[in-house]
Design brief:
Number of helices: 10
Mean pLDDT: 84
Largest sheet: none
Strand content: under 5%
Structural class: mainly alpha
Number of domains: 1
Distance between the termini: 28 Å
Radius of gyration: 22 Å
Oligomer: single chain
Order of helices and strands: HHHHHHHHHH
């Protein structure tokens, strides 16, 4: 991350990926520990989730509706799903905070260590969590609008016009996917903004929207590529490990499962690194100067270090 703003501004997708992959070489021990303690549990939980839910779902399917144990099985499933979501969101935010903070420290030539990263996470986590809540609210509103649109489409379209209905359905689902990718890109960039700038929550989302201008297509390709890769890994895991018990032996399932978890760990790490690099690319594209000394002091503030008074602790002056 020793590129000048002029170089960052013109980075292509392959160059962003290449730059992201080389970052861990600057502090291999720190990134190894972050991967082992945060990204690995997150990746393992994502894939192993179906291993635990599948037996519960099978038991529910076998139960008679009048069986009193059915209620208990549903309760176990809901409790497990709730705990899984809490774990997933917590480790997702923790991993984001750790990687973004570490990459920024390397960018500003600040001493990097796993201890300093972990020490900064508690203050960073609060900002990320508030931003995450706003994103969740946006997603809920978006899903409600989509479902309402789908219901209106079913009511409005003539049942005899099957071709017209299918065309409208394809358009609606395409629009849903496009907006979903855009909101995801908005969230990822807002997460970086929440760590590196004195804004969070809805203000970070507004800032993210500004930074995405001119780079929306690139962000969409990155997000879609990441989601598609994760989906493919999950699909293969489900086929070979979760539902492949009859065709594949236990040893094969363990080997394939371990391999896919390892692949997902790498994908998640690279995704977080790309997320950080893309922020600097957007900043440079909009000619928003990155004051490394101010950013250095801002990062030090998370560690309780003395932060000198400046007109802005970030790269540009703006109102919160």
């Amino acid at each position: 991350m020793d590129l000048a703003p002029e170089q960052l501004e013109h980075l292509t997708l392959p160059e962003i990926l290449k730059e992201s992959v080389t970052i861990p070489k600057s502090s291999p021990k720190t990134f190894s520990l972050i991967t082992l303690t945060l990204i690995f549990p997150l990746s393992f939980a994502i894939l192993a989730h179906s291993l635990f839910t599948q037996p519960l779902l099978k038991r529910i399917e076998r139960q008679s509706p009048s069986n009193p144990q059915l209620h208990q099985e549903w309760t176990r499933l809901l409790i497990f799903q709730f705990c899984y979501l809490i774990f997933l969101f917590a480790f997702s935010l923790l991993s984001t905070a750790a990687v973004v903070f570490t990459v920024a420290s390397i960018y500003t030539s600040k001493p990097v260590s796993f201890t300093s990263t972990i020490s900064a996470i508690p203050r960073v986590f609060k900002r990320l969590f508030i931003t995450f809540l706003w994103v969740i609210l946006l997603m809920v509103v978006y899903d409600i609008v989509f479902v309402a649109s789908l219901v209106l489409l079913i009511i409005a379209v003539d049942a005899n016009s099957l071709l017209l209905f299918l065309f409208a359905l394809i358009v609606l689902f395409t629009l849903f996917i496009v907006l979903h990718v855009y909101i995801t890109a908005l969230w990822h960039l807002a997460s970086v903004v929440s760590v590196l700038e004195p804004v969070y929550g809805i203000a970070a989302m507004r800032k993210s929207k500004e930074l995405l201008k001119g780079k929306t297509q690139m962000a969409a390709v990155l997000v879609f590529g990441y989601l598609a890769t994760c989906g493919a890994i999950g699909g293969v895991f489900g086929s070979f490990v979760v539902h492949g018990g009859e065709n594949n032996g236990l040893f094969v399932r363990i080997v394939v499962g371990a391999f896919l978890v390892g692949v997902l760990v790498i994908v998640n790490l690279i995704g977080l690194l790309v997320q950080s690099v893309f922020y600097y690319v957007c900043k440079s594209y909009h000619h928003q100067g990155i004051d490394k000394s101010a950013l250095h002091d801002h990062l030090g503030g998370y560690l309780g270090e003395y932060v000198p008074l400046k007109s802005s602790i970030q790269m540009e002056s703006m109102e919160i």
